[in-house]
Design goal:
With about 475 residues, the protein is mainly alpha-helical. It is about 80% helix and about 0% strand. This is Tetratricopeptide repeat protein.
């Protein structure tokens, strides 16, 4: 799980934010007063354990101890805030008769409301433990504070943070979800929770969380970029294209968005090409299987003819020669059996290949449909890079990509030429070679302009190859 990194701030505590400025003598007096109160209330409860007011006073004293800003005091008893909660429960129990709570019980319960004493005490020690990198202990205090104040966003947020830091991923997720449910708006938490969903492969939740963040911060580009990246990682190319087109409409001069749209179109084209190749490869497997079956049948026929010939000789052979012919017959029959067994396997392979291909006519229709989509996308694709160059004529990536499109087309045509047999090449080779040259000529000016913008070694090598293919005597600096 990706960690959300936040700086934990000190929450409002019992002594308030002016603690650092107060007189040292006054601080010492406050320390003494709190420690005396703890000692006094402990003794009072021992003497009169059935009086609810004494239990309430004791809870207040322990909360004050845990809430004190000076950690040398607040950490004297790390269980102080939890003990105080137990003392509150005892005060409520003693002041409740026949299900009806008395005034002391009600006062005691108020200490647990919202950001009252219990919350401040727990958060204070939670912060101290966080600052000391004792994240496990910090989580204990923070989570209890969040439990006591279920509508408080701060404790929910920091409970999630420390939960992650001590690798309590499930608890972190729960806290962040609670934080968002009660109105949390921190961008780091929105981003972090989206990443948690992404890692858990909960795509809809991840995208919905980013959409929630975008609604809160409509001008924030980081959240939009993260959603774009997430759509790509989820292979939701059409959604990514739709989002980016919306961004281009809002800011038509953003070259990065225009360039990324071009890349998305190329990605979609490659995906469609993969589908085409899968259909074509399945058909090729069928043809290959058919050739193997035909070859095996031819092989078997040779032995069948040989068997007939030897059997004919056996009939007219002298008694001494018959064993020789019979041995030949046995050997040939064994070969025929082996060939037939192999033929059966090959025919099974052919049947499997034909089954995988499915309906030939439907496949052709699908291929035509895919090729049509590819052609349409290819027609639109260069426009995004050209628009980027209209905004910035020296935009290297757009220059390179326009060159690469034609360069890759040339390479693809060249592969087809290399696969031609000699007879086909004699008939079609010259025309195809001219197509290759035309594509290299299309790529050349974009690569040359790109090299002026950026002296990239890989691009230099590509340019050298283009010059060689076009038989141009030109050096690349």
């Amino acid at each position: 799980m990706k960690k959300v990194v936040l700086t934990l701030i000190t929450v409002v505590m019992a002594a308030g934010s002016t603690f650092a400025q107060v007189d040292k003598a006054l601080v010492e007096a406050q320390k003494k007063s709190i420690l005396d109160a703890v000692k006094k209330t402990d003794e009072s409860v021992k003497k009169s354990p059935t009086k609810p007011r004494l239990w309430l006073d004791r809870a207040v004293a322990y909360f004050d101890l845990a809430s004190f800003p000076d950690s040398t005091v607040s950490t004297l008893d790390l269980e102080a805030s939890f003990k105080a909660i137990e003392y509150i429960a005892e005060a409520v129990k003693l002041d409740t008769k026949d299900g009806k709570k008395g005034s002391i019980a009600k006062d005691a319960e108020k200490l647990l409301d919202g950001r009252e004493k219990a919350y401040g005490a727990l958060m204070n020690v939670g912060v101290i433990k966080y600052q000391g990198k004792d994240y496990l202990s910090s989580f204990r205090y923070m989570s209890k504070a969040s439990e006591i104040a279920p509508k408080d966003t701060m404790s929910a947020m920091y409970t999630g943070v420390v939960a992650q830091l001590c690798q309590k991923d499930a608890e972190a997720r729960k806290s962040y979800e609670h934080y968002m449910a009660i109105g949390g708006k921190d961008m780091a938490i929105i981003y972090g929770l989206a990443q948690i969903y992404k890692v858990a492969k909960e795509e809809e939740k991840a995208l919905a969380m980013l959409d929630q963040g975008i609604a809160l911060y409509p001008s924030n580009k980081d959240l939009r970029n993260e959603k774009f990246n997430m759509l790509i990682s989820f292979n939701r190319i059409d959604q990514a294209i739709t989002q980016l087109k919306g961004s281009v409409e809002k800011d038509p001069k953003d070259v990065m968005n225009l360039f990324n749209l071009g890349l998305l179109y190329e990605n979609k084209i490659n995906g469609l090409k993969d589908e085409v190749n899968k259909i074509a490869e399945a058909a090729i497997k069928v043809e290959s299987a058919k050739r193997k079956v035909a070859s095996q049948k031819d092989k078997a026929e040779v032995y069948v003819d040989e068997l007939k010939r030897v059997k004919a000789k056996l009939k007219t052979a002298q008694p001494k020669q018959k064993p020789v012919y019979q041995a030949q017959i046995n050997k040939i029959e064994a070969s025929i059996k082996a060939d037939n067994d192999e033929l059966k396997l090959l025919m099974d392979e052919q049947a499997e290949a034909e089954k995988a291909v499915g309906d030939v006519a439907a496949n052709k229709a699908k291929m035509d449909e895919l090729q049509g989509k590819i052609a349409k996308l290819r027609e639109e694709l260069p426009g995004f890079y050209i628009r980027a160059l209209e905004v910035d004529a020296n935009y290297y990536d757009a220059l390179y990509q326009l060159g690469a499109m034609s360069y890759n087309d040339a390479a693809e045509i060249k592969r087809k030429v290399n696969a031609m047999d000699m007879e086909t090449y004699k008939k079609e080779g010259k025309a195809v070679e001219e197509q290759i040259a035309a594509k290299y000529k299309e790529a050349l000016p974009y690569f040359e302009r790109a090299l002026v913008v950026k002296k990239d070694d890989d691009l230099k090598e590509i340019l050298r190859q283009v010059y060689r293919e076009l038989k141009m005597e030109k050096s690349v600096d």
